[in-house]
Amino acid sequence: MGRSRSDLVVFIAKRLAQLVPVLLGVIVITFFFTHIAVSNPCAIWSGPKASPSTIAACVKNNHFNDSLPVQFYYYLAGLVSGNWGTDPLFHSPVLSVLLTDFPATLELVLAATFLMVFIGIPLGVVAAASNGRIADHLVRIFYLSGWATPTYIAGVVLAIGLGPLLGVSGGDFSTTSSPVPAITHMSVLDAIIALNPGATVDAIVHLILPAVALAFINMGIATRMTRTSMLEILPLEFVKTARMKGLGEFWVLYKHALRNALITTTTVLGVTAGTMVSGTVVIESVFVWPGLGRYAYEAITEYDFAGTIGVVIFFAIVVVAANLIADILYGVLDPRVEWR
Amino acid sequence: MVTAAAPATKAAARAGVAARPRGALKANVFLILRILAANPLTLVGFILVVLVSLTAFLIVAVPAVSLLAIGRSVSILPYPALDVGAFPIFQGPSLVHLFGTDQSGADVFSNVMAALPTDLGIGFAVAGVSLIIGSLLGLVAGFYDTPGTLSAGASVAILRVTDIFLSFPTLVLALAITAAWGRGEIQSELAVIVTWWPFYVRLTRGEVLSIKVQPYVIAARAAGVSESRILFRHVVRNLLEPLIVYFSLDVGTVIVTYSTISYVGVGVPPSIPEWGNLMFSYQDYLLSAPWTVLSVTAAIFITVLAFSLLGDGLRDILDPRSRRIMSTTAAATPAAERP
Amino acid sequence: MGETGCGKSTLGHSIPRLLPEPPAKVTSGKIVFQGTDLLKIPKWRMPGVRGTGIGMIFQEPINSLNPAYRVGDQIAESVRIRKLRERGIMPALKPDVKGFDYSKRELPKASEVVTGPFIPPNVTQTLKTRGPPMTKEIHQEVLDFLRLVRINDPERIVNLFPHELSGGMRQRIMIAMALSGKPALLIADEPTSALDVTIQAQVLTLMKELMEEVRTSIMFISHDLGVIAEMADDVGVMYAGHMVEFGPVAEIFESPRHPYTKALLRSIPNRYKDEGVLPSLSGSVPNLSKLPVGCTFNPRCPLARDVCRVKPGPPFALLPPGPAGGMHRTACFFPDEVPSMP
Asked: Are residues C206 and C305 in the same domain?
């Protein structure tokens, strides 16, 4: 094993292969947790006024009379052939809904990651560089407050408190009335593709508050991790070497010290993907953002099994992919790591 | 000068790494006090955690004890919680109603305080159970992984299952489970525990793997110390510090996550005062009656911040590496000048 | 020179103001470099002094190179900074700063290991002298400096990461990096103590040869008396954070005038005869935060009297010129009694 490009390809292929049993486990666990508890949701789905024949048809269609393993077989077979089930209310196919909703969530998560990286990490550097002084205490209070503020509170305060200031009324932050065609289903990207500066600004204005709310809790993790690893790195000799070259403090901190501190921070950022994705469930509900998180919430509360499992699979893929990206970044950042 | 660290402190810091000599206890207490003094935020966190826990205890204990002692339930809260129609609605904060009243006319202060034992209890319970399950599994997976043995098979199985649970977004799985199992305190707590223990497995296993290759473990093994004694004397002893730090941070995280589940509407029933529930019922009045939302926010914020500050500070106190850094900083005084 | 913990490194680090402030603080005195008191200039101007003014080599070659960058790039950074300063693009301590001129070599080259000429004339002439330095030009200089420290295949080495090199190799690269800023003063903080004995000898030989080749001032910090005797022109002896004696190397080693120096020198084993147990000094170095009153050496000094135990301690006084000439100072009330010290 080494660090050549082919080693990296082998590494990624191996990790993708490991993904299969993990995803299978995710499907099994979600399937059984949901199906054991509520054995026959047809009564709930069809509503109180439904005739017994409707319920019977529903039971038959969904194989609810079969044993759980048989039901699981039917579900898995459908999953492989691309039929991820249908939503019990509107009978829309789950997979296509997931695919259209996913870009909006991805946009939100990417925006939050952007904030986390470009605000959270520099704050950690500032704190470490002024260790024990006022700036350090302020940054610590900031990241601990991020940690101590549940996502829904940050969301509510920003949506209802600051939303009107940005001209977003009624707490609806989706840009569904946007004049640009939905190509990627990411509002900002669509507006840029359409070369419409007005729509771009509008999309960014709508994106900024949900992204800040989502980033707030994770920013703390990024800042804290950066601060901790910077504190370990700053006393090392190579930092002095960089200073002794005549480099200014900015370059010493950001080019030499942070480059090494990022190695630890990256692994933690991979872990925050889970928190981030969980956060979208709340944030998208609060901000009426048309993404997977809101869909997950609706699916869960409406006993939409197919939707629930589908969205959990999607989220699990996101989490695992984020960890894979973090691992690759880790290897790229640290020349001592070999791909294996 | 930096090099002027007192040798005594360095010895104390080193003693903290492995089995600690008895004589170092005094030096350690002294050091912890000095670190607390040098780090006011940790002290604040410590005091807040004690205050919050004490208040929660009194809110639960005083009515119970008074019921037994004088046959009448006395609460330390000014008014009953969630008392619909007790007062005029939306009164601003005053001396009678510290945090005002809400949309149902109940006293916000009493509601928020009545929720404290619930949330704190859930925080401790979920983090505690996860700690026990996760650290035991992590210990097994980390310590008994000699290839080819039966226990190694068990270790691999534990790790695979942990990996699967770690790929779930915590909140989504917890929501799915609670929704399926039905709304209720026990169900929702179990759901959070189901998603929570894997973090402890990973933390414990990582620590065990790094402790296992430490020179003092190898030396103990070379000296003929039995495996079980190594496990308890060296591995478990050194696991305690990271686990304590993580646990103290984690109580706050659980409170945040659990209140989110309640907020979304699948946690404890609305009849029980809980911060997530309260927040959900107050959120529409953020602009018209801001004291409602702010009171809940402040309660969560202070509680979670207390545990975060404590955990953050504990890490500095318990981690020998940062302890050394801190003691050198604290002891660094300019050397006497030459005349 | 001085024993471990006596403040040698702290002194070395405080000259380019490398100590973290706070907690470190210079409470009195001056650090004069090329006519400027470094304590008087604001902290943000200090980088202008480092690299091209003062260079430094550290003790641990394992940690002194950045693990994330290729060694060639790390040296190139240093070269680029100097070039930018020479051309007035980047601020330096003095606006008209010129890199220390290494080309005026009065002495012949001491080594025959050098494979290429140091700064080949044809390269220097064809390069532009204004504007930002070109990558190619910098790369060429990086290779030159690697050859200067006797690395025979610099083209291969520049592409390696620090963890792919041995300790001796890393220390050579460290030396090349420090020299590539062409500093007027090079502080070498125990550059060989972390190395194996054989590698130590190689690096010391290299440094000694370089001293004659590059003709820059070197402040060599060491606890190894043998190394000092071989490398130094002038020696300062430190004890418990204070300079106790300073003088030409011959005088310090032949006729020390401070009881501590004398005691230190007596502990060198004689190579040719077995003297039994080496004489050692009773007591230990005082805790630097609780220094004895008066002369810091008084608790361990066989010559100590009442005057040594009260404030103020002995002044760092100039002695009459000895046979070797030069400036000889000692911080002792009774320098004349030292030669006959028991």
From this structure: no
Please give the DSSP secondary-structure letter assigned to residue B320.
H
Q: What architecture is domain B110-321?
A: Orthogonal Bundle (1.10)
Architecture label for domain A94-296? Orthogonal Bundle (1.10)
Q: Note the pTM of the prediction, 2 decimals.
A: 0.79
And the tokens for B41?
């935020």
Q: What is the domain partition of chain B in residue ranges?
A: 110-321
Contacts of B301 in chain A (CB under 8 A): 145, 148-149
pLDDT for A215-243, tens place per residue?
887 888 888 889 888 988 888 889 988 98
Contact with chain A for residue C146, Cβ under 8 A: no
- Asked whether the beta carbons of residue A336 and residue C55 sit closer than 8 angstroms, the reply is no
The listed range with the strongest mean pLDDT (A164-168, B68-72, C19-23) is B68-72
What's the complex ipTM? 0.81
Is C66's CB within 8 Å of A333's CB? Answer: no
- Let me know whether C66 and C113 are in one domain: yes
Alpha helices in chain B (DSSP H): 7-15, 24-38, 40-70, 108-143, 150-166, 170-181, 185-212, 215-222, 227-229, 237-264, 275-282, 290-318, 320-331
Cα B314 from Cα A135, distance rounded (Å): 21
Which of C231, C250, C283 lies at the terminal end of a domain, its last residue? Answer: C231
Chain B interface includes A37 (CB < 8 A) = yes
* Closest chain A CA to residue C15: A244
**Taking CA atoms, what residue in C is nearest to A256?**
C66
* Token pair 């010895």: residue: B11
Same domain for C198 and C242, yes or no, is no
Suggest the residue from B1, B9, B10 to mutate for an interface test with chain C (most C CBs closer than 10 A): B1
Instruction: Indicate which CATH number applies to the domain containing C188.
Output: 3.40.50.300
Q: What distance in Å separates residue B263's CA from the closest CA in chain A?
A: 8
